[in-house]
Amino acid sequence: MDTEPVADPDPHGPAEGLPAVAPRLRELRRLAGLTLEAAARRAELSPAHLSRLETGHRQPSLPVLLGLARIYGTTVSELLGELPPAQNPVIRGGGAGAVRADGWTYWPAGGSGRGMQALRVHVPHGGPGPQDELVRVHPGEEWLYVLKGRLRLFLGEAEHLLEAGDSAHYDSHTPHRIGAADPGGADFLFVHTLLQSAASGLCLGGPATVR
Is the confidence at residue 199, as pLDDT, over 90? Predict the structure, then answer.
């Protein structure tokens, strides 16, 4: 049962400046399944102070907003009730330029800032680059679909040979490595769940440069 201490009376009424924040703070705390006391304890605030924030009698400082966003598993923008700009769901083939890293070439195939990131990738066969021996282990999931050529996928101790039309979906906590099996290289679609990861953080090569 969520018991709410009553905030101390404030003769000046609700504070001005961020009127939309108060109801959002209360709503997100309840969605997180936290009582006022539990949330205040995690945020290192007094229950009375958090109650004042939730009733609009006090304005939260930026450090407080950051702390509450972390506790509630959200962002400061969501706490402030800001809506993200509408994103175009269509990504044209002639849009963003190709990106190269260690001989690999890839193109964005999905929108930015989303829970899944999609790329179209060309990986060359062999070569002196460090990618040939690079093994990755990181949180998330990965999915790939071979468009052209044959792809070598190493998962743990197992090696898989994927041909055009084959796909793979795996937990990226499993040590993994990708390479081309044919002299002409391989093309594939690649989707991962590393939100806003830089190109150099993927299993697709080292520091990237835009061509």
Answer: no
